[in-house]
Amino acid sequence: MTGNKKLQIWVKEWADICQPDSIHWCDGSDEENQKLLDLMVSSGAAVRLDEKKRPGSYYFQSDPSDVARVENRTFICSAKKSDAGPTNNWSDPQEMKKTLLPLYKGSMNGRIMYIIPFSMGPLGSKIAHIGIQITDSPYVVVNMRIMTRMGKAVLDILGNDDFVPCMHSVGAPLQPGEKDRKWPCAPIESKYISHFPETNEIWSYGSGYGGNALLGKKCFALRIASSMAHREGWLAEHMLIMGITNPGGVKKYFTAAFPSACGKTNLAMLIPSIPGWKVECVGDDIAWMKFGADGRLYAINPEAGFFGVAPGTSMKTNPNALLSCRENSIFTNTGLTPDGDIWWEGIGYDIPPGTITWTNEDYDPASGKPAAHPNARFTAPAKQCPTIDSDWENPAGVPISAILFGGRRPSTLPLVCQSFDWNHGVFMGSIAGSEVTAAAIGLKAGVRRDPFAMLPFCGYHMGDYFAHWVKIGENAPNKSKLPKIFNVNWFRKNPEGKFLWPGYGDNIRALKWIFERTEGADIARETAIGYVPGEGTIDISGLSEAAGNIPELLKVDKNEWIDELKLINDHYASFGDRLPEEMKEQLQGLTSRLENAR
Known about the structure:
Elements: H1 5-18, E1 22-25, H2 30-43, E2 46-48, E3 58-60, E4 74-76, H3 81-84, H4 93-104, E5 112-120, E6 129-135, H5 138-147, E7 149-150, H6 152-158, E8 164-169, E9 192-196, E10 201-205, H7 210-213, H8 216-232, E11 235-237, E12 240-245, E13 251-257, H9 264-268, E14 278-283, E15 287-291, E16 297-300, E17 305-309, H10 319-324, E18 330-332, E19 335-336, E20 342-343, E21 377-381, E22 398-406, E23 416-418, H11 422-430, E24 433-436, H12 438-441, E25 446-449, H13 462-474, E26 484-488, H14 508-518, E27 524-527, E28 530-533, H15 550-553, H16 558-573, H17 581-596
Parallel strand pairs: 1-5, 3-18, 4-9, 6-8, 8-10, 13-22, 22-26
Antiparallel strand pairs: 2-3, 5-6, 5-7, 9-10, 11-15, 12-13, 12-14, 15-16, 16-22, 17-21, 18-21, 19-20, 23-26, 24-25, 27-28
Helix pairs in contact: 2-5, 11-13, 11-17, 16-17
């Protein structure tokens, strides 16, 4: 329990509405965690994996209607529709609450209401913030224990201070004597993930999966936190944080924002191909950044675990991710092997006969159905990552020297490019995205913009978000200490459609150039779009085939960029009068430089 009066009143109000059978205040202990896991195993909701193959780990299958974020059921409920902007679904906050309160009424009949105190970030950090989640899902409790710092110690630190209230119910009340479903949830049309930025509230109803239910993740760490950061003058970003040490022992920290399927986790856990370089992981998904007393921008990973996409993760593509979930992990919607282990497509070895699919059927290769859902996940403690950084839980955070943006672009964007200055870097982030083909995902071919990789996660108007980044630069205590900003592109292709760059561990070669640029090395040439590596300044030692591709990888084609200008103008038009003047000036500057380019 707690002496925090606001918290006591809030819990009582929701208990009166949801009418649970009982209330349990989570203490985060090993005993509590094991009791909940045993309870779910006995009910059939979970399978305990083989203790020798996967110690302390458990397997879950969700309902087929509840397998991923539901963007069309995710709402920003700002007082003014204009404040949500063109990239969010908006709903009037009062109307949304009128819709949701009848759904919540009695929604926890037959269930336990769990109260989860959690800290986003190291306990006591000035960059961290505390949330309290109410839920009726023991699956959520055991996942939140991995993903956040959760339990009694959080209440001790909270005292009488304020907190972010996070309300969640799976929306599946039980009548007396009714048997529970393996994965309780509400129908898709009754799922709501609603954010109230003016009051820092989150109300989630109907889903038990991932970021819809683990409210510390995208809901708090990005949508609500980005709105808090906008008001308070800091940054809450969809970014990895990595530490890079050169052969001389000098260490720097970078953050990087990439859209989905662009290798963010792979980069965070990169194994360098150049001898003497070392990469360590602070976080693979989210960065919160505030200025320190020395005027530098410091970042923490607000999470304590990895919620990673399983399919495609192997000892070849990302050994550190696979090793991170070797024990004490939760697996959702992967395949289940007959010997009590997990399996997914791309894991690196053949599927064992007798494997059960995520839909609880015998795997049949002739059916064409995968064993694991494409969004199957592992939840693993970050401290289990073999390359976790020694400062990953430093309450002060780590000082950031470089910020990277990127996306999947088969042409136009070079392997690596540095911005001219801070505002030009904001411009780079504002136009980030990936090129898509109609054949691939049924969309109109072209560039799908994902500014700052925040398209689904910015909790307010994206134009105001660009302006906030500009203001961060203007208000920096010491502008000379601001991180340098870069764009990277591992995905350029030749006319035959083959990748020009090997990627994975060889990405250290571009990171090495960035590292040296943050130290002021004179290894760049100026182009219309920014600074790109000068001839011979990318370390290609040990590379054979890709070495001959360097000119093409670093090419800045005037005609391609003139075509790009048209796309950027269309993109910017969607933000109307909320597009900052500074971004208009950056676009005009690029246009002028291209007109004068040879």
